[in-house]
Write a structure and sequence with these properties.
By secondary structure, this protein is α/β, with parallel strands linked by helices. The chain has helices spanning 13-28, 42-50, 76-84, 95-109, 123-129, 163-173, 189-202, 217-229, 263-281, and strands at 2-5, 32-35, 53-56, 66-69, 88-91, 113-117, 136-138, 152-157, 180-183, 207-211, 233-236, 252-257. The chain has 9 helices and 12 strands. The longest helix is centred in the last third of the chain and has 19 residues, at 263-281.
Length: 282
């Protein structure tokens, strides 16, 4: 079987920076926590945990040491709580997420009803919600009714959403009763490029594999997009999860990976896939 890896796959700059900061902190400090999983990849989280990183679900669980703010960011209230405890902070928030937080705050001060297009339960969105009062989260068309009574709307977007979903939601919002609408594109260009490369590849192959954490929003989005063009698209965390029987009858396989998927997971999958085929052909 021929194996093709998408041009843009694996760690994005924001994730790479967060991991580097975590590793550097762990090499210097003994009592290190992250406020939530530093990235959405169980293999990376397991490796960092083995190196001593403790994962805390909330600030109340941390009373000493050093706290790493994960790539998805944290609310201003969480930061205040940590500082109140005199705990050292290592901020690994993605610069693009910080930008979204600043824009949300600015729009609010300018008198706009702020709405973010994204997934309400995603930690990035939760962090943005703490930037200004009563930010509306628009996950689908049903949520748009929240905006009907506001005249000044300021719209931003979760960085890992697809351009298609962003555009669809904007088209629906445009039909509400606003008098002034301000839209700021806060999509991550790296994520958009990754999605575009994945879609182009999945159209050319017999079977498509999306590698990454099952809780990773950007990885799920890749799988969702590719599956709309190639029904034989599979979202897996690593090689061990692959049901080998699905390989039969396919000649060309495509592979891409989410922003939090380490290169060694991609390399291991490609190597094993090729080795499996070589054994099969003998």
């Amino acid at each position: 079987m021929k194996v093709i890896v998408a041009e843009s796959s694996g760690f994005c700059p924001g994730v790479r920076n967060a991991i580097n900061m975590a590793e550097k902190t762990l090499s210097k400090e003994k009592n290190v926590h992250s406020l939530g999983e530093i990235i959405h990849n169980k293999d990376v989280v397991k490796r960092l945990s083995s190196a001593g990183l403790k994962i805390a679900k909330n600030v109340n669980k941390i009373n000493s040491g050093t706290v790493i703010i994960r790539s998805h960011g944290a609310t201003e209230e969480q930061i205040r709580q940590i500082r109140h405890k005199n705990i050292e902070i290592v901020d690994a928030t993605c610069v693009l997420v910080k930008r979204v937080q600043k824009i949300a705050k600015l729009l609010h001060t300018q008198g706009y009803k702020v709405a973010i297009i994204g997934d309400k339960g995603h930690p990035e969105v939760q962090a943005v919600l703490g930037s200004a009062p009563e930010i509306a989260v628009i996950g689908d068309k049903k949520d748009i009714r929240k905006l009907n009574n506001f005249k000044k709307l300021g719209i931003i977007c979760q960085t890992t959403q697809s351009p298609e979903h962003f555009a669809q939601m904007l088209a629906e919002i445009a039909q509400t009763n606003f008098t002034e609408l301000k839209v700021i594109n806060t999509l991550c260009k790296e994520a958009v490029k990754r999605q575009s490369c994945a879609v182009q590849l999945c159209k050319k192959v017999d079977i498509m594999f999306i590698l990454g954490g099952l809780h990773s929003a950007n990885t799920r989005k890749l799988a969702e997009l590719c599956k709309s063009y190639n029904k034989k698209t599979f979202h897996l965390q690593n090689w061990k999860e692959l049901d080998k029987t699905i390989l039969f009858g396919n000649n060309v396989a495509g592979i891409t990976a989410g922003a939090s998927t380490p290169q060694w997971v991609i390399d291991d999958f490609v190597e094993n896939l090729r080795r499996f085929d070589n054994k099969k052909s003998k």
